[in-house]
Amino acid sequence: MTSARFENFTIVLQKPKFPGNIGSVARCIKNMGMGKLVVSEAGPFEQEEMKIMSTHFAADIIDNIKYYDHLGDALAPFRLSARIHQEARQSLGTIYKIRL
To answer: Model confidence over 13-51: pLDDT tens digits?
Structure first.
């Protein structure tokens, strides 16, 4: 069995409301050794506001964010995606929606 290579993982944020949230996610991505951050249907946000929450440690993640106007375009490069959304926290039903 081979282990997952987290640097090949990309996090896609759809409609984030605040630049600080994007910065916090960037910091988490860096802490977990993941590779990229994609933002869909949001912005533009000030990079400096995002970098405050990301800290200097994850500034490179912020500098390399890819932005898309539509979620379909953001997901197009990927063969597999999993969706977790805020409604999942409110129920005990299905949490992951997998697209193959």
So the answer is: 999 999 999 999 999 999 999 989 999 999 778 899 999
* Residue 37, H or E segment: strand 36-40
Q: Give yes or no for a cis peptide into 44 (omega within 30° of 0).
A: yes
- Residue 66 pLDDT > 60: yes
59, 32 Cβ separation under 8 angstroms? no
CB atoms within 10 A of CB 62: 23
pTM of the model: 0.79
Domains parsed from the chain with CATH numbers: 6-99 (3.40.1280.10)
Residues 6+ apart with CB under 8 A from 33: 6, 7
- 29-52 burial: b if 16+ Cβ within 10 Å, else e: bbeeebbebbbbebeebebeebbe
